[in-house]
Amino acid sequence: MVASVRVILGIIGCAVCMLLYSAPILTFKRVIKEASVGEFSCIPYILALFSCLTYSWYGFPVVSSGWTNLTVFLISSTGVLFEISFISIYLWFAPREKKKLVILILSLVLAIFGMTILISILIIHTHHVRKVFVGSVGVLSAMLMYSSPLVAVKQVVRTRSVEFMPFSLSLFTFLTSLIWMIYGLLGRDPYIMSPNCVGCATGILQLVVYCIYRRSKETPKTWNNMENDMEMVTSCKDVSGHKP
């Protein structure tokens, strides 16, 4: 019974995550149309890629025992495809200096992920220790992404305008984190449950702040505003939270 409920929650969580993963598409359409990234930052997408890569490996049978975390593997792998697409578009239209920074950070993230794979395969030889190691790296990557909504909340409080934090994204952040937190709880998996507890807390905070400032007069949206919106979006993508 518990296993069946967990599978259903995993499917629902995947569906909600897909909505969040696809949220930046409109912004990147604008990047393509204007052939410029403006002041838009790519770092949140690189962190999201790191988290998706880590949890894809975490859900793989080499780390988890069998396909017990199949849904985590599937949605995280999908997230990897989305993030690679967004980062590739950014690199294509970014000026040279920004490209150098993105490539540097991206190389560092990929190097850390590569080391995680090598250590978990060549040095660690049991599923339990391997799961603890990879899960700990995953929790760290998820925590890095969960700092993004706090930036959006601070911006809303400072400007007294909720245009920096759309209600739908705040709601999906909370729902995604809640679903995956229960998923991890039912599976007694602290590496999925713990980061999503933080995600639930930040989701509730966003919803409360939105309710407080939703009647405030909005100012015209600028490219910087959109940057803040999208940084908030990427924090929702952890199937661990994302993302996972």
TrEMBL record:
Cellular compartments annotated: Cell membrane
Membrane topology: Multi-pass membrane protein
This protein's UniProt keywords: Cell membrane, Membrane, Repeat, Sugar transport, Transmembrane, Transmembrane helix, Transport
One cellular-component annotation, GO: plasma membrane
Protein's UniProt keywords contain Transport: yes
Entries under Gene3D superfamilies matching the protein: 1.20.1280.290
Residues that span the membrane, as ranges: 6-28, 40-58, 70-94, 101-126, 132-152, 164-186, 192-213
Source superkingdom: Eukaryota
Any matching Pfam family: MtN3_slv
GO molecular function terms attached to this record: sugar transmembrane transporter activity
InterPro entries: SWEET (IPR047664), SWEET_rpt (IPR004316)
PANTHER family: BIDIRECTIONAL SUGAR TRANSPORTER SWEET3A, RAG1-ACTIVATING PROTEIN 1
Family indicated by similarity: Belongs to the SWEET sugar transporter family.
Primary role: Mediates both low-affinity uptake and efflux of sugar across the membrane.
Subunit description: Forms homooligomers and/or heterooligomers.
Protein name as annotated: Bidirectional sugar transporter SWEET
